[in-house]
Amino acid sequence: MKLLLVLIAAFISLASANAARAQTIPHEIWGKWVVRRILPTDTISCWGDAQPKTLLHTEIEYLPEVFRWKDVVTKHPVATSKVVTAQQFHDDNSGGAVDSSQVTFHQLGIKAGAAVEITIHHPPANITGATVEIPGDDVVLKDKDTIIFSACNIYFEAKRISAKTTGTQERRR
Questions:
Q1: Reported pTM
Q2: 16, β-bridge pairs
Q3: Which of 18, 45, 60, 78 is 20 to 30 Å from 38 at the Cα level?
């Protein structure tokens, strides 16, 4: 009986670990993306007015074994992906006080009740001195050609400009 309980506990532990499983860059975001706009949110940022504008029109590239923003390249990154509900996203990315940062799917233009969030793990980067994040290292899929990410608590929208051909597409040719 004890062995059965141990096996059940191990199975449950393994199942929960797979909920946000580590992997290479997920194929859903392979390709090149251009940062198109700053999204209006009720957040408090560590940046002034000038820094967010420097991200506009920059390019992010995701490949199975590479993550790149401008000339910052991370090779062989480990990524995790999970489904987050609108409420989970708000709770994870908003402050607890009335006058603290508040961000919602509605502000980001996400109409669905849940979305896929992909996080790319990498060594700290020195992009502006105010943050160690790389733009595009934590994204929410708005749709197949639009991603949302934040840098210094400012939210940006990027649009796909090209996608790498998958094996399935190659077999159709």
A1: 0.78
A2: none
A3: 78
